[in-house]
């Protein structure tokens, strides 16, 4: 229902933009008109982007942060191409009327028309963000570097909005158009302010989180224990994650996504992290008493979306952290499949074994190289004969998660019973 609502909201606003564009009139060159229309839809997509990244609890609980992030990625590329089309159409249209070449025309517009230079800077920033978000570049960048560059998107948003106010003829074509665009941008910016500034500041002021212990699990994995005030009022569930900011002198500005590795009990929180970048590697050196600023909880990978009484939990590598937390909270019979390359890589395995024994769950540790696939359809059906009668939760590296999802579809597990979170840098 929430997904349909978002699609419906975008479609309804697309119709409104088209109506306002038509009502503004067509007294211009065809290319200029196309440029204006693509610019308007670029503005709409930018506002929609803000809603997707606002981290509003209502949307997150129903859709999940990983799916919202995926939509944000594809909307971002659509936005980039739309704004490029806007720039090309506008520049070429005015160049055709003035007999200047497109480059000279763009320079002339930037020098003579208020707001155009800001738009050029905004587009350049978005091109840089788009380039570092491409898969090949993203894999080579540390999460911290990528996140820092991505923050320049907000600068681009401000510049683009002021450009629309200054140079957008459709923006001022009528009182209704002006009210619509101010209302759209106001709602989008209010959502971001509420979800990403006001709510995190209020929760952290209320709970005052601090590190109480740092426990190495093996040479590459560490668990961080955190406590605070009134944690029973923090609406966190097993399977969710936070964006953690540890307020040390050299790391206070970095926020990293890590899942809870134990079900919240109202007294403390725990995250278990594998060293995958500078931020995660530095956690081993945290000292008890370090202040913590946490944004969240986020994610729909929880028991709230269960449809069946029994469950299958599939974990890969350190993706076991939300699975271990879920096992602690879920009711009904559970089967846990834990996939690792070698037994030494099985983080929290002893905890899982004790927890499975206490809750009457089945635990299977599956070891070996990625090929052959030890979670292929035949093997899954052998290990869990009643698979189609269970909810299935999957969390692990992207390759493993994709393979398990293919196996589940091949075995006929209904889509509504499959819950997955794509795991890469988050612990």
Characterization of the model:
With 427 residues, this protein is an alpha/beta fold. The chain folds into 3 domains: 2-203, Four Helix Bundle (Hemerythrin (Met), subunit A), CATH 1.20.120; 207-298, Beta Barrel (Elongation Factor Tu (Ef-tu), domain 3), CATH 2.40.30; 303-422, 3-Layer(aba) Sandwich (Rossmann fold). It is 52% helix and 16% strand. The chain contains 15 helices and 11 strands. Strands 9-8-7-10-11 form a 5-stranded parallel sheet, sandwiched between helices. The protein is elongated, with a radius of gyration of 25 Å. It starts with a helix and ends in a 5-residue tail after the last strand. One of its GO terms (cellular component) is membrane. Its main location: membrane. Keywords: 2Fe-2S, FAD, Flavoprotein, Iron, Iron-sulfur, Membrane, Metal-binding, Oxidoreductase, Transmembrane, Transmembrane helix.
CATH level 3 topology of the largest domain: Four Helix Bundle (Hemerythrin (Met), subunit A)
The helix-strand sequence is: HHHHHHHHHHEEEEEHEEHEHEHEHE
In the CATH hierarchy, the architecture of the largest domain is Up-down Bundle
Q: Output the CATH class name of the largest domain.
A: Mainly Alpha
Tally of DSSP helical segments: 15
Poorly predicted ranges? 423-427
Q: Helical content, roughly?
A: 40-55%
What is the count of distinct domains?
3
Terminal-residue CA separation = 29 Å
- β content, as a range? 15-25%
Protein name: Oxidoreductase
Keywords: 2Fe-2S, FAD, Flavoprotein, Iron, Iron-sulfur, Membrane, Metal-binding, Oxidoreductase, Transmembrane, Transmembrane helix
GO molecular function, one term: metal ion binding
Membrane topology: Multi-pass membrane protein
């Amino acid at each position: 229902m929430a997904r349909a609502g978002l699609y419906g909201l975008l479609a309804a606003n697309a119709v409104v933009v088209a109506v306002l564009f038509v009502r503004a009139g067509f007294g211009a060159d065809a290319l200029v008109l196309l440029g204006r229309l693509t610019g308007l839809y670029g503005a709409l997509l930018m506002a929609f982007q803000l809603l997707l990244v606002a981290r509003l609890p209502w949307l997150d609980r129903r859709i999940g942060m990983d799916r919202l992030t995926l939509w944000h990625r594809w909307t971002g590329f659509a936005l980039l191409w739309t704004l490029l089309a806007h720039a090309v159409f506008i520049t070429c249209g005015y160049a055709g009327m003035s007999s200047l070449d497109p480059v000279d025309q763009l320079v002339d517009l930037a020098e003579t028309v208020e707001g155009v230079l800001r738009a050029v800077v905004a587009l350049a920033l978005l091109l840089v963000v788009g380039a570092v978000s491409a898969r090949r570049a993203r894999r080579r960048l540390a999460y911290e570097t990528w996140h820092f560059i991505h923050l320049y998107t907000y600068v681009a948003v401000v510049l683009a909005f002021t450009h629309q106010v200054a140079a957008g003829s459709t923006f001022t074509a009528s009182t209704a158009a002006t009210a619509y665009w101010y209302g759209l941008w106001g709602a989008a910016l209010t959502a971001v302010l509420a979800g990403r500034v006001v709510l995190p500041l209020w929760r952290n002021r209320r709970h005052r989180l601090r590190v109480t212990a740092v426990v190495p699990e093996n040479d590459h994995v560490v668990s961080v224990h955190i406590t605070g005030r009134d944690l029973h009022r923090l609406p966190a569930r097993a399977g969710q994650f936070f964006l953690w900011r540890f307020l040390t002198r050299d790391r206070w500005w970095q926020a990293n996504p890590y899942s809870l590795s134990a079900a919240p009990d109202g007294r403390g929180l725990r995250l278990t992290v594998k060293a995958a970048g500078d931020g995660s590697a530095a956690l081993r050196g945290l000292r008890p008493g370090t202040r913590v600023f946490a944004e969240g909880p986020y994610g729909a990978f929880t028991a709230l979306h269960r449809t069946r009484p029994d469950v299958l939990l599939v974990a890969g590598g350190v993706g076991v952290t939300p699975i271990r937390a879920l096992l602690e909270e879920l009711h009904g019979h559970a089967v846990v499949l834990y996939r690792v390359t070698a037994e030494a890589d099985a983080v929290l395995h002893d905890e899982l074994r004790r927890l499975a024994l206490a809750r009457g769950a089945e635990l299977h540790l599956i070891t070996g190289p990625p090929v052959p696939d030890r979670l292929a359809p035949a093997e899954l059906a052998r290990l869990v004969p009643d698979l189609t009668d269970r909810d299935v939760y999957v969390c692990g590296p992207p390759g493993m998660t994709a393979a398990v999802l293919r196996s589940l579809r091949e075995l006929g597990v209904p889509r509504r019973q499959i819950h997955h979170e794509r795991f890469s840098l988050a612990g």
